[in-house]
Here is the input.
Amino acid sequence: MEQNITLAGNIPVAANEDKMRSARRKRIILKIVQYAVLSLITVFLIFPFVVMIIRSFMRDGYSLAEFSAASTLKNWKDLFSDGAYMTPLLKTVIIVVVNVVIMPFASSLCAYSFARTKWKGKELTFALMLATMMIPASIVQLPLYVLFSKLGWLNSVLPLTVPNLFGGGAINIFLFRQYIRSLPKELEEAAKIDGASAFTRYARVTLPLCKPILIFVAVNAFTANWSDFMSPLIYMTSEDSYTLAVAIYQNTVGVRASAINVRMAAGVFMSVPPAIIFLLFQKNLIDGLTVGAVKG
Amino acid sequence: MSVIVQNEQNEKKGFLTPRRRRALKGWLTGFLFALPVILGILIFSYYPAIQTFFWSFTDFNGLEITEWSFYQYEYMFTIDPDIWRIFGNTLLYAFVSVPLGLVLGYFLALAANFKVKGVPVYRLLFYLPVIIPGIVSGILFSTILGGNEFGVINEILHALGMSAGKNFKFFLSGETAMGSLLFMGVWTVGGSMIIWLSAFKNIPDTLYEAAKLDGANAWQRLVKITLPMSTPMIFYNLITGIIGALQCTTPLVIDAAGITGAPGSGFDNSLYFVAIKIYNEAFGGGAYYAYASAIAWVLFAFIGILTIIIFSTSKWVFYGEED
Amino acid sequence: MLKKLSMLGVCALMAASMLLGLTGCEEVKNPNLDENGQPNQIVTDIDYDVTATLKVAYKSENSEKAIVQSLADGFKKIFKNVTVELIAYNDGTANAITKLYNAKTMPDIFMSDSFSMLTLSAKKGLLLDFTRYIEQEIEAGTFALTDYYDAYMKLGQIGFDGAQCMIPRSADRVVCHINKMLIREVEQETGKDILSKIHNGWTWEEFYEVCDLLKEGSTFKKSGRFLLDGEIKWEAVWNPVFKSYGVEYFDKDGNVAIDSEATKQALDHFKYWVSQGYCASPTSGQSADFEYGKGVFYFNSMAASQEIKTLIEAYKDTNNAFTVENASDVYDVVTMPVKADKPLIGAGAAGYCGYAGSENPELVWQFLKFMLTKDGQNAIADSGVNYVPVRKDMADYTDSENNHWGKGYEKINLQAFVYKSGELLEDGTYNDDWNCNTDYFNVKGSKYAVDLNAGVSTFVTSYAAGSKTYETVLTTLKKTWDAALRKR
Here is the structure.
């Protein structure tokens, strides 16, 4: 009969505990290093925005170190009372709300056609649609500017909303198509047998199942239109029709660097809604990226 | 029924037999659903593209056309003194910033994949700079990377002991402007981090475990597993990223007042990009739509060539599977 | 069959877009306009009780709104039933007005400067030509061009001798604004008298002498502090200097003639400012910050009242805060330094243009005619901005009862604004020997004015910044000019 009872093979117990202790120590050191790396990166990436927030509470012409001497709420008061930013904000909100509603529905409708119906020329049309993603914005903006000016649509929200009625964006249609394809066909088949028309099948069966992508497209519509700068700059030409992005830009042009901190406040203000939306819908956003990107 | 009567009945119905009618109905259903986007791409994509193509051979200035010739292209390639610098700047920016972003994004994704508590919070913070609107980050960074002693980074460096006369010039010097712009791009590396994270998710852990058992170290795992498995996705994002970067207009919001020269051009035309040139020509007071169209088509042609490269060198199918 | 149909459809679309682009939707022709887009009928006596609305656009900066408001109020006293609506625009004038024109929301009157006017003159039917109105009124004896400084009226004409498309609102002459307080600080420190060396009509040599004296003070020995905000890139600063050195831009036949010894000297003149440390390098992002109370000299045509307001704001929360009443303790103005053998000082022109397609062109003319009357010019001064009136008979600022631009600023050397450029002489004539308009581009055509100017601005600033040689900047200038002139 064996007298030495051992654990873990032939290693005596005491030595085993030593090994565990050093392994644990290594793990702790690793964790510390990892946290340090993460924190350093965070500080680097976030500090500009912290600066922006701090500056928005400071008076002009002082360096950051003198924060306590120069702190003020004046910038924020100016931001809200000054018509220069509030009217554009309203315009931006209108445009964004309209697009957030139109784009998911317009693109899902068209995607349904590509995903679930059969008609001659479908593949060609889909290819032509994807090909438009290649066309640079600069090419599109010039004739559309001339067209809109002839139609009298400049300085209104129409140029930034009506085109999105027509399909809601090629990339969104692409995403919806991929997603709808991956849905099981049985429910729709059943509806078809029950005599439902194509539109009913789309609206009652497919669309509710597309909720994740609907949210994704809506959120993207929000961010894209909220931050959009070049298009409103070109189509909205007079002060009372600026969007928020253009208003902030115009107050940078030519002005003798005055009221720079009000612009910081405006910048903070402009960043808050997308940040909130992102925080609320982040899982959705990341999953949505997978749907489109991985499939290739 | 006799054949003759049947044929008569068929003739009465004419062209649209029941079978043809059903086929037409089926076709119409699909077509009508897609009609909005068909009209959309015709009106808002193809019509403008054709329109600018024709304009580029004229002298259209918003009001009238008086000549048809290759003059705009001749002007662009032989007379305009800035255009080659512009092409060079744009290519440099696109082909450096995007791969740089992907490489940095890889490392960031590694960090974001650490198995520590609270990593999702860090991931969020990494991605936050990406959603800041472009105009905001433009004016923010023109303050942070300000070239005189009031720029935030210069202030910090002075506080840490850098001599009072020396300042990093960032955007205020033709030599450092492009570098500063690329540096500014580092903050949005969170975007490519997300792409890498999705790529990682798709690589089954079992592959890594098997490799570890076989004795592969971290570098070998990177090169033999991670990279090959991610290649399709990374390649796609590389090309679309470059296509997007070729249309960059960020200098317009940094250099809004145009210290030496046209708005958005940067010192000595160091930040002058093609999309900004097009904007200045068309909307900069002179209404040189024809010239702007010519430049835009040169850009378009280049993007087209890049896209053809995706087509031919990747196994990724553009159309999607057949039903 | 479907394939054939779709091919047909694509061809039809291409044809349609070509057509659409070439002809455009047919514009409805306005029957009141002739083939140049100008009004058919020139009406100069109108009913003062007419009811109408006039839209006036002003550039959203400084006190432009106050000026326009003041003019509108004065106008309303004459035309009681005309409502004047004010709208603001940002961005460069030519850009902003072009955009409004394209959006079909053109104002009737808009503020402009002479260069923007020249750019806009290329668009047929945009600018209202006032020439026939002026001629009719002169015939009727209700208007006299001789009341106004010729140089400024010319700045409002296309080609300096053609259609009067802009009515200047003031005689904006470049002057040298001074911060007396900073000078006195240095005087106290060094014990040397500096202020007495500054006088109307001083030369560049005298100016440099003063600068050297100032640089002995500790304030200006610090790095980052400069004496002069020279506005080197502004044509009203470099053009007179170029002309006084005898630089010729284009010769009579329109050939480029700028490469000369005179040009080199003129460029070196500006480089001297930077190399001596008087003025910050134009490309360094630094400046003397006169308007923040840190610089001593500022070459600009801004009205004295404006600079005083800016300085009050700059010193607001410091020990040196002051009010308009004791402004002369801190601020004064003097003529811009000149070259002793060929003294020339530049002039800018800001004014208002009219829209040719306006519904009430006659009211547009009446509004601007009002601006040119004594009441109109005084209205501008009453708004708080004391630009020099464009009327010759208002040059005497000491008579502040009749000429409001001097009111409240008696202790300020306002003569700097009219010295040798519009002061009334004893024999009843006006002298404007020193005036110098930027008109070198006339031989090439107004259309290119802005681009040619931009080329020279870069020419001067990049040489002054010190990093490029004369040959380099000259080559760049020639290329820029060539490209600008050959653009279509």
About this structure: Residues 13-70 of chain A form one domain. Residues 13-56 of chain A form the longest helix (44 residues). Residues 273 and 280 of chain A are 11 Å apart (CA to CA).
